[in-house]
Specification:
414 residues; alpha/beta; 9-stranded mixed β-sheet; 9-stranded parallel β-sheet; 35% helix
Length: 414
């Protein structure tokens, strides 16, 4: 595989402590940088050649409307000069629901008119998904993946949970596994209508035949532990069944109100608890004393008009925070991690540096990955070139398409 040298970087976020201009900076920010890629991995990262550093330091050489960089051959590598643009690791979106049929735009309009969000709307998507063919679901999934890539997301998780039958959940897991290694079995999304009067039988199904059918395609197991979905007792039973089968646990929790989700996450040493909108002081303290990642999903609050999670409180307590899109047809139909970052900065008290870290390295931690979300030597070369001189523009210019180029394992996408 050809070596690639990306140079002329005005500002490089590595997410490697000690790699940057400030040794204590967790984002490892280097101004006037270069990055060498070999075999799809980062082979070298640091300040550029002094002559290049002079011309591009602090973005002096950045030209926002210049054409895509020309690839040249120099010193045994293909060279891409990004003209003073900022470079960050590819976004790691650790929470999505991308395999589904149908549309729920009418629910969004109703919420904007004052109707409150409830988990029961999921059943509408279940009906549409069951009616969709493999090819229809596959085509739609491919469209979402293209959206993710275009917006700088290079690693993403996909959940099942929109069929809720044995064969159907296995089908969704199989289709998800065609586009990502990070597949989550979410048979415990809601109790389907046909089991409304026999919840125990449905939990038995999830813990038994449904889990077995999805297992060959999944790495994770998840439960929606919430009023209208699954109780803490049901959640514990389902997660323990998944753990015994070899899946790693994660959890939807504390989204619609205070509950036992955070404490359960700590008790079971879950990798990530997602939402975390309603947390008591005891919940925050327990999370801070654990290795559980709190994954915040501000697209949900944007789309439901619920209160935003208090990221500042969590970070101040020492909790590891990740950001993800929760792309789904009901409560957060966005695949844009740049939008998520802008919301986190504007509405949740995060700095730009914290939000970018949470959307890259934080997402990697939520997926138990150390090869993505950072650009240290040996990391997978997932690189995003921004059409901006600094990462601050991700929040400073919300809604503007700032992704100039994306490389996944050193290869350009798009």
């Amino acid at each position: 595989m050809t070596s690639l040298l990306i140079t002329g970087i005005g500002e490089l976020t590595t997410n490697v402590v000690g790699a940057g201009d400030d040794p204590a900076d967790p984002t490892g920010l280097i101004r006037g940088a270069a990055l060498r890629i070999e075999g799809g991995r980062v082979a070298w990262v640091g300040p550029a050649d002094p002559r290049e550093r002079t011309s591009h330091r602090r973005g002096d050489g950045y030209h926002p409307h210049s054409r895509r960089p020309t690839v040249l051959s120099r010193e045994g590598a293909d060279v891409v000069d990004v003209g003073g643009r900022a470079v960050i690791p590819g976004f790691v979106d650790s929470h999505t629901h991308l395999v589904f049929g149908g549309d729920r735009a009418d629910e969004f309009e109703a919420r904007m008119a004052g109707v409150s969000y409830a988990a029961g709307g999921i059943r509408r998507t279940v009906a549409a998904t069951r009616a969709a063919t493999d090819d229809e679901l596959r085509a739609r999934l491919a469209g979402f993946v293209a959206e993710l890539h275009a917006q700088g997301t290079t690693t993403f998780e996909v959940k099942t949970g929109y069929d809720l039958t044995v064969a159907g959940e296995a089908r969704l897991a199989r289709l998800a596994a065609e586009v990502t290694d990070e597949v989550t079995f979410l048979g415990a999304h809601v109790v389907p209508a046909e089991y409304a009067h026999d919840r125990d039988a449905y939990v038995d199904l999830v813990c038994g035949p449904m889990l077995t059918a999805a297992l060959p395609h999944a790495r994770w197991i998840d439960v929606f532990c919430e009023t209208g979905a699954f109780t803490p007792e049901e959640t514990r039973r389902i997660l323990l069944a998944g753990i015994e089968a070899g899946l790693r646990p994660r959890l939807h929790g504390n989204q619609l109100g205070y509950g036992a989700g955070a404490q359960l996450a700590v008790d079971l040493d879950i990798r990530s608890i997602d939402h975390c909108t309603y947390l008591t002081d005891a919940d925050v303290a327990a999370l801070a004393a654990s290795d559980v990642v709190a994954t915040l999903l501000p697209g949900v609050e944007f789309s439901t008009r619920h209160p935003y999670p208090d990221a500042r409180r969590l970070i101040g307590a020492g909790v590891t925070v990740a950001l993800a899109s929760d792309c789904n047809p009901g409560s957060s139909f966005t695949s844009s991690m740049p939008l998520v970052i802008a919301l986190a900065v504007r509405e949740m008290g995060m700095t730009v540096a914290e939000a970018v870290w949470a959307a890259t390295a934080g997402g990697a931690r939520a997926l138990a990955r150390d090869d993505v979300g950072q650009l240290g030597v040996g990391a997978r070369a997932d690189v995003v070139v921004l059409d901006a001189p600094s990462r601050s523009h991700l929040a400073y210019r919300p809604g503007v398409p700032l992704v100039h180029a994306v490389y996944c394992e050193g290869m350009p996408l798009g």
